[in-house]
TrEMBL record:
InterPro entries: AB_hydrolase_fold, DUF900_hydrolase. Residues 1-20 form the signal peptide. GO terms for molecular function: hydrolase activity. Keywords: Hydrolase, Signal. It comes from the Bacteria. This is Alpha/beta hydrolase.
C-alpha cells in the first residue's frame, strides 16, 4: 500500500520540483523587497534538450548533445524576493516572471564563452543552477533568473543547465532515466563553463533530482597533480539521492570544491514520497542529516514553506541569505534568530514544528521504521 501511494502521489508532489563558522563577517541580511521597475535579466544556459522546429525554444525530449545560449527573463515590477510571482487579479498586478517572445537566444559554444567571459574582474564568479524533476526549459530559466537576481548575481554570470525532464508529473521514472542519460552532457557543459571562467570561481546549486547527474560527474572529474579545486561552493538543495549512494560518492565533493553544503527538511513531502517509492532514505529529507560527512555542511530547515515544501532553498529568506553569503563571501551566515548549531550540523526555524514531518532521520511518514 505504501509503495502504491508513493507511485500515485510522488510525481504530483515533486512537481514543485555543519561545520563551525570560520569567522568572516556576514553580508547585510537579505530582506524581503519588491522591485520598483521591470528588469530584463539575462541568464546563460546549456541544455541537452531537443530544440523545437521553429528554434524558438526547447522540447521535453532528449537531444543529441549540448546546446548553448542565453535567455532574457523579465522580472516584473513588484517582484518579491524569493518568489516566481503571482498571477494578477482585478485588484493586483501580475508579478510572474516571464520570457517574452524572441528572448531565447541560440549561441555557438564560442559565442557562449564570449558572453560568459565578458565580465572578468576582482571578486566576480559564475553560478550554475541545475534543476530537478518535472521542469521544462522555461521553468528552469525562470528559477535561475529568480535565484540570480535575488542573490545579486551580475547579468550573464548566472547560468543553468537544463536536462530533458518532461513537464509531466506522471513521468518520474522517465525523468530518473533521463537524468542519468544527461550526465555526459552536464559534464561537457561544466567543462565549457570552467574554460570560460578563467581565474573566476564557479559555484553550483543543484536541486532535487538534478543532484544525481552532478554527483556522478563530480565523481569522474580528474584533477592534475597540483591543480586547484575547480569549483567554489557546491550547494546540494533537497537532494533526491539515495543515502548510501551519496555516502559512497561524498568524498569527491571535497576533492573538487572549496565547500559543499547539503540543505534538507523534514517537511519535504515530495522527498518523503520518494523515500517511500524507493524504500530507502533520501539525502534531502530528514530532521537530522541522513549522511554525516566530515567537512560537508548540513543545514536542516524547519522554516515554513508552501506545500509541498520542496523549493525552500529559493523561496525562504534565511536560506537565501545563507546561500548568498556562501556565494558572495565564501562563508555562511548562520547567526541570529532561528539558527542553532548542533554537533555536526545546523538547524534554522522551529525545532518543534506544529505539524508532523513528512520524513525524519528514522524514516518517512509511511515507513517510520528505517534506522540510521
Amino acid at each position: 500500500m505504501n509503495r502504491a501511494f508513493a507511485l500515485v502521489f510522488l510525481p504530483l508532489l515533486l512537481s514543485a520540483c555543519a561545520m563551525p563558522e570560520r569567522g568572516a563577517a556576514p553580508l547585510p541580511e537579505l530582506r524581503s523587497t519588491y522591485t520598483e521597475n521591470d528588469v530584463r535579466y539575462p541568464v546563460l544556459y546549456g541544455t541537452s534538450r531537443k530544440p523545437n522546429g521553429a528554434r524558438t525554444g526547447y522540447l521535453d525530449e532528449r537531444g543529441p548533445g549540448v546546446q548553448y545560449g542565453r535567455v532574457i527573463v523579465t522580472i516584473p515590477k513588484g517582484h518579491a524576493t524569493g518568489s516566481l510571482g503571482e498571477k494578477g487579479t482585478l485588484f493586483s498586478p501580475d508579478t510572474r516572471l516571464f520570457i517574452a517572445p524572441g528572448n531565447i537566444e541560440f549561441h555557438s559554444p564560442d559565442s557562449f564563452m564570449k558572453l560568459a567571459a565578458g565580465r572578468p574582474g576582482k571578486g566576480s564568479y559564475l553560478l550554475v543552477f541545475i534543476h530537478g524533476y518535472n521542469s521544462s526549459f522555461d521553468d528552469a530559466a525562470l528559477r535561475a533568473a529568480q535565484l540570480g537576481y535575488d542573490l545579486d548575481v551580475a547579468p550573464n554570470d548566472m547560468m543553468f543547465f537544463s536536462w530533458a525532464a518532461k513537464k509531466d508529473y506522471r513521468t518520474y521514472t522517465y525523468d530518473e532515466a533521463t537524468a542519468d542519460a544527461s550526465e555526459i552532457h552536464l559534464e561537457a557543459f561544466l567543462k565549457t563553463v570552467r574554460a570560460a571562467a578563467g581565474a573566476r570561481k564557479v559555484h553550483i546549486i543543484a536541486h532535487s533530482m538534478g543532484n544525481r547527474p552532478l554527483m556522478r560527474v563530480i565523481s569522474r572529474l580528474q584533477l592534475a597533480p597540483g591543480e586547484s579545486k575547480p569549483f567554489g561552493q557546491i550547494i546540494l538543495a533537497a537532494p533526491d539521492v539515495d543515502r548510501d549512494v551519496f555516502t559512497h560518492h561524498a568524498h569527491n565533493y571535497l576533492r573538487v570544491a572549496e565547500r559543499t553544503t547539503v540543505y534538507l527538511s523534514p517537511f519535504d513531502v515530495a522527498l518523503g514520497l520518494s523515500q517511500d517509492l524507493h524504500f530507502y532514505p533520501r539525502v534531502g529529507c530528514g530532521d537530522k542529516p541522513q549522511a554525516r560527512i566530515k567537512e560537508i555542511d548540513s543545514v536542516v530547515s524547519f522554516v515554513p514553506e508552501d506545500f509541498p515544501s520542496h523549493t525552500y532553498i529559493a523561496s525562504t529568506l534565511p536560506l537565501l541569505n545563507d546561500v548568498r553569503n556562501l556565494v558572495l563571501n565564501g562563508e555562511p551566515a548562520r547567526q541570529g534568530a532561528g539558527w542553532k548549531a548542533h554537533p555536526g550540523y545546523w538547524t534554522v526555524g522551529q525545532d518543534r514544528p506544529h505539524s508532523g514531518p513528512s520524513c525524519s532521520s528514522a524514516g518517512s511518514f509511511f515507513n517510520p521504521l528505517w534506522k540510521k
